[in-house]
Amino acid sequence: MKTKITELLGIKYPILQGGMAWISEHKLAAAVSNAGGAGIIAGSNAPVDIIREEIHKAKSLTDKPFGLNIMLMSPNSEDLAQLAIDEKLTFVTTGAGNPGKFIPAWKDAGVKVIPVIPSVGLAKRMERAGADAVVAEGGEAGGHIGEISTMCLVPQVADAVEIPVIAAGGIADGRGLMASLALGAQGVQIGTRFLVAHECQIHANYKKLVVEAKDTDSIVTGRFTGHPVRGIKTKFARMLLEYERSGRSADGFEELTIGGLRKAAVDGDIEKGAFMAGAIAGLVSEEQSAAEIIEEIMDIFPK
Fold first, then answer.
1. Are 125 and 229 found together in one domain?
2. pTM for the whole structure
């Protein structure tokens, strides 16, 4: 399948794997890239030397393109921006901030720039700044989210910018890819479905929660802080929602959630972990290899 995104990144299929903190490391990224998509290593808040090692490990497993996700509010963002250049990565995706100051250096180095955006206004701003594409992420996505749904956001962004649009949020199979293309996207970014890839190194408890999730097991917490997060409806998540409704302070809420994703992904802590996943988790029913996931997604299209 050829789209503007496959041509931009030099990949076989228009499928990007989400850059998920504490989750998207070299084994998953390399497996997705080897299967014809575009894997992504999450920079998160890790020291630059650790991410450099992750990149080198990924390069030892694949000769296909993969990228780096940089959270621009993280203290390591400057170092990671330079690392993408030093390692001659195909692309970066960015979130939680404006990548404008990094874009000229990235483009001079041949690194494609793909910011994740939640609105038309930000998509236009990123296009003006020189982005090569944008990920239009709807509120159905896992982790930190905006409020506009994917179905509403993607066509409006596609109509508003000339650069390619990648749809994200609530996409886990070939129907989601086909719908995204119909809405004007040139590809999709998928996170939740890849949580249950064999190559994904998260704790077994995390994978079990995703596989067993029903359509009603998605919950958004933290809206009153201005930083809403979507995850699986666990006892801990329901407690956070009750805290939010009680009228207590946002600072106290933030203290409760510190380190929650690490507790979920690394420790599998059902009592205190933040098991981030999209609203589409109820559609994910089994663990598979990254290659099997991508093959199944593409099976809907004529050969």
1. no
2. 0.94
